[in-house]
Amino acid sequence: MFERNVGGVDRLVRALLAVALTVVAVSALRSGNRSLGVVAALGAVGAGFNATTCFCGVNAALGLDTAREE
Q: Where are the domains of the chain?
């Protein structure tokens, strides 16, 4: 469906970022900070999508391809 343009270290960093943002989102939502929680959750979903599908729309728009660097 999408042409792969995320790979290697870039993919690993995005996966770790997704986990970290998920922790921030849960913590913020538990403490009642809804704004930070929602923003962190959206960031986690985006980074997780990039890491899982190996596709990034921003990379595609800028012509970047970290999948070929492996």
A: 8-63
